[in-house]
Amino acid sequence: MAPPPELGHLLRDDGSVVIPPAVAAPVLRLLTIGLTARVRADGGEIGPTARRVLHALHEAAERHDRAGFADETPAPATGIVESTVHEVAVRMGCSPQYVRRLCASGVLRARRAGRQWLIQVDDQRGAA
What we know:
128 residues; mainly alpha; 2 domains; three-stranded antiparallel sheet; 3 strands; extended
């Protein structure tokens, strides 16, 4: 069975698959979730080849983020002060995970910078 034309450039003649850097992090996340569940279920361990693939995906995702191609929102206008998730969590007296959920849901005005959230200080309800 031939692959769909839009996927042809991702499949190599030897059967390997090219994973574009933009999707390396989500693919790594899904593989990690699946492997963790499998290891918990049967107590097994992943082999050295799978471990190398995971490390390669991690490195590709890191390089992609460092190059500035991650899913980033534009930088705010100059003069706006931003804080990190940890700083806001300390000010609000909550966990960093809760602050990340507030950012993702739009409750806090924030932007993505690689894998980090940067939150506008003037919109930290109860934190300023």
